[in-house]
Design a protein that fits this description.
The protein is of the alpha/beta class. The protein is 26% helix and 28% strand.
């Protein structure tokens, strides 16, 4: 499938798939979307000083890198797991401008380390940021009661509806600790209903630029639904 690097509305880059008319991040601002959805409405709502995070769709590493930057500012200890079935290519990475746009050139080596770290092993990126990259299909995730926060950043339901089903959200529910939170840019009614059907308490929140709403789901019940 053809892939190209484009500039989004806030000046940051993303990967565009013209055959699907789909991007890794919002074309209305990749960095703005990441901060609004995953940091403001996700990471900043978790009061723990040690936080286990699962990212569904590691992609360009933008969410991971921004989380690292936030951990340094707020003295958080982050154990970060990023799942990706189709890793980004080196020639694409070289064209991304996240480090410059985030004014984080002193951490360029960290961004490189995130992508150069080997798959399926735990790596100490810094003393307070641990990274495990798993080359894995989302349907193969079987974690239980481990994560405090999930960044659900899969391709949209329009192009990959199988990633937004009750089956997948049941896996997310089971992977979270009690009171764990899942955040996503999506606000589709079918997505909300799939989340609620497996036990999540779901909120509609104001969305990132040019998007009216997003969803945040919390594991409030202690009764894990029966597996289908």
């Amino acid at each position: 499938m053809k892939r190209e690097i484009i500039i989004t509305s806030d000046g940051s880059t993303t990967v565009h798939l013209p055959d699907w008319n789909e991007q890794y991040h919002s074309k209305h601002g990749a960095i703005q979307e990441a901060y609004h959805v995953f940091i403001k409405n996700g990471l900043e709502t978790i009061s723990n000083t040690q936080i286990n995070i699962l990212e569904i769709g590691l992609g360009t590493g933008l969410n991971c890198f921004i989380t690292f930057l936030e951990a340094q500012k707020n003295l958080k200890y982050i154990d970060y797991t990023g799942v990706e079935a189709y890793p980004i290519q080196n020639d694409e990475l070289e064209k991304l401008n996240f480090v410059a746009k985030l004014e984080a050139t002193k951490h360029m080596a960290i961004f490189d380390k995130i992508h150069q770290s080997s798959w399926n092993k735990k790596h100490e990126i810094t003393s307070n940021f641990i990274l495990t990259k798993r080359k894995q299909f989302f349907s193969d995730i079987n974690d239980e009661n481990y994560f405090d926060l999930i960044y659900f950043d899969a391709f949209g339901a329009r192009v990959q509806p199988e990633l937004w089903t009750e089956t997948i959200f049941l896996k997310m529910f089971n992977a979270l600790k009690f009171n764990g939170v899942l955040v996503t840019y999506s606000a589709k009614g079918s997505v909300r209903r799939a989340m609620e059907s497996v036990g999540f308490l779901v909120e509609r929140l104001p969305g990132p630029p040019r998007k009216r709403e997003m969803l945040r789901a919390t594991k409030k019940t202690i009764i894990i639904p029966l597996k289908p």
